[in-house]
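Hi F.,

I've been meaning to write this up properly since the lab meeting, where we talked about keeping a consistent format for the predictions we share between groups. The idea is simple: the sequence comes first, exactly as it goes in, then the structure tokens exactly as they come out, then a line or two of notes. No screenshots and no reformatting. I'm using this chain as the first example so we have something concrete to point to.
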Amino acid sequence: MSGPVLVLVGPPAAGKTTVGTAVAAARGLAFRDTDRDVENATGTTVADLFVEHGEPHFRALEEQAVARAVAEHDGVLALGGGAVTSALTRDLLVAHGRSGGTVVWLDVDVASAARRVGLSRDRPLLAVNPRAMLRTMLEQRAPLYAEVATHRVATAGRLPEEVVAEVLAVLTPEESS
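Output, unedited:
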């Protein structure tokens, strides 16, 4: 298998960055986040890209960043919450899973996600009525996360260490070394 040892998908506030950095550290792997890739490539934040250029522009950049990262990165990769809205990205992730890669959906409930997000200005789609937007987002994207995931790990009401331990447990021995 080539590509990332682990790809993490899930909604905003599911814990992709927290879990991803911890899993990478535990296995001595590099961590990569496609939102950071987009920010580094453009020199601006995801939130500013949304405001200045709109969601479609950001999604096109994100799709390219995911394709590059899946092709180049061999560590732990975290995708932005909306990356799965791209059919091309979903196809890439399904193919990665079929070729032996691990794609974990970090699932979270609305109450937990709303608590974690708080009033964050870094999440442009959640700027107005975050709880309602989260509920809608979770309902719309759940089938997409399920389509690409090789494993689903619930994060609601759990400590990060518990989630990390479960994610580590789903990695095959050759992936975790």
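Notes:
The domain at 6-170 is CATH 3.40.50.300 (Rossmann fold).
Residues 6 and 102 are 5 Å apart (CA to CA).

If this format works for you, I'll send the rest the same way.

G.
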